[in-house]
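Design review, sub-item: ligand-bound model
Attendees: FS, YL, KQ
YL presented the inputs for the adenosine-5'-diphosphate complex:
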Amino acid sequence: MSEFDLIRRYFTRPTTNTILGVGDDAALLQVSPGMELAVSTDMLVGGTHFYLDTDPRQLGHKTLAVNLSDLAAMGAQPRWATLSLALPQAHDDWLQAFSEGFFALADAHGIELIGGDTTRGPLNLSVTIMGEVPQGKALRRSGAQVGDDIWVSGVLGEAALGLAHLQEQVVLPEGVRQTCIAALQKPEPRVALGQALRDIAHSAIDISDGLLADMKHILDSSGVAAEVRYDRLPKSTYFAPSNEDIDTLAQDCVLCGGDDYELCFTAPLAQREEIMALADPLHLPLTRIGSIVSGQGCKLRAANGNVIQIEKEGYDHFA
Ligand code: ADP
Ligand code: MG
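KQ shared the predicted structure:
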């Protein structure tokens, strides 16, 4: 199969929201009046971000999902994506499953694939995603204000727990195991939540490198500090509060575990009810975990008010 057959067979589909899609030297896009273009790129490297034998359908999903998560954190409506692939070889079954996983999620969000690049090399999957956000309305990391509540969506640490299971560091009971492995392999980006928060939140970020590491980006960009209650964090049911044995694992997964793709955001107290009212229609737990204070860094407290010492933060490819 030639490179061009491959692109035509697996990655060329008719577009309706695009002036010109795959097949020319560049795509042509029209941004809607009154909107800003939000652009983000995320790359998944085989052997670093995923096991090389990962199910290709799930990989197609995840390649797009991690990018959607970034647009969600900006409050943007996803519109277009490009896909750059380095593949060790062109296997029909693999490409078929990968493209199905990719397009299923693309269709669910009304995104069109408008271009990319295809080359031979160690497995590497890179998406650039483009979306629209009303002028001046994007959620930035730099908007947190002293007095804001800090919120997170979903449940923390499940993806890390799923990974710990695959790495045989824990043996998860069925049920929990399925949820955690699905969280790792088939994350659901919080696109609708991000857009709903545009006029509500002061700042937002997606937690892909762990809660503490990503929240720190909000704190640093905004020039503020945080007080967070560990007991209030939404955790996997596997971490029963009484189970002392797995407490270190719980802290690792919940505070530092990567791959959660939930949103962490800050909002004024006056917005509490409005935020709580979003949880039901979105079928997504939203939890108030602490508040923004003046100063620097994040202080984590137990239910009794004691400060919990935290050693590591999140995942850093160059640390
Ligand atoms: P060029 O040589 O001009 O860079 P290519 O031959 O790399 O163009 O690509 C031909 C067309 O196919 C372009 O429109 C490009 O955007 C698109 N394309 C290449 N790889 C992919 C891919 N993996 N997914 C979607 N579109 C792709
Ligand atoms: Mg090219």
